[in-house]
């Protein structure tokens, strides 16, 4: 264990160095930084290559390992309940801070247009539910539709529990081997992290430019501040209360996954790293990690929920609309509800923002004012999404261990 922690500590130091050098490279040599984007794309492609087989096999192995539907029900309720709790607290933090320190002076959007927002189809609850169910599992696997893959693999595993014992063992042994092989490949990709991070960060800085961030500095600072409060106060408090562990030591040990999420801006691309790290240095049982983390990569959106809440309140200030307590409460409930379901749809954040703005009667065109810094903030909110996953999986693991001790 100590050797593994040292290995990840060395990687973390190299990653931080990659971030610093990437920022400097992007600022002082932007043309070169833009041309080397392919290195970062190769790195992300390797990560994404692992995600679909890893999610399918790990969910299957996890449910088969539970052995019965009652155990699945217990761990499933704990997981969903904790994800809803952390998301709700993230939204509450965002609303509280935006009311204490309101930002955004009234401005007209006349002449502004954000075409992509107008292309988003109106939100439909029926469409959201149907999007969870794969009509063709091979198409879902090819497209990387995570929620559909999770639903099918869960049903496949439950059906396998009804097979004869020898066939259950055969299936479990096969998918366990697949999971282990994918995690070994993930370890190879992790060694590329410093170079991948350097490439990704330098490209983003070169593409976005520092001037864009400076122009919206109050908005950027507000989003980052709320995300940090949730990451450094709320989540550790939840982990300490429910998990009965030292939250800061644990989060420090598994920080590799959060750093990776920041650089890739993708929860699913980070999944192979998250699973490897929580098992090797976080002390989480593989069976629990295999169930909680793939689900979290799809439905856990603490960072996104907090970001959307701030963005909508910021836009309301720009529009000169004073949202009442009831409006803000409705905003909070809507964000929490949508964060679980809309994750299965393409352009999830955009869909959620359009839905909420329409619900509150705010002009969608205001998105054009804040989209310039969306890429930078996307990296930050994705890092928080993954940090929340790391916290929830540890709590679920601790609760399962306590339950076993009491039996």
Automatic annotation (TrEMBL):
Main location: membrane
Membrane-spanning intervals of the chain: 12-30, 42-63, 75-100, 145-163, 223-245, 295-316, 328-345
Segments forming a coiled coil: none
InterPro entries per record: Na-dicarboxylate_symporter, Na:dicarbo_symporter_sf
Molecular function GO labels: symporter activity
Record keywords, A-Z: Cell membrane, Membrane, Transmembrane, Transmembrane helix, Transport
GO CC annotation terms, alphabetical: plasma membrane
Location within or outside the cell: Cell membrane
Record Gene3D superfamilies: Sodium:dicarboxylate symporter
Membrane topology, from the record: Multi-pass membrane protein
GO annotation terms (biological process): dicarboxylic acid transport
Domain of life, per lineage: Bacteria
Protein's name according to its UniProt entry: Dicarboxylate/amino acid:cation symporter
High-level lineage: Bacteria, Pseudomonadati, Campylobacterota, Epsilonproteobacteria, Campylobacterales
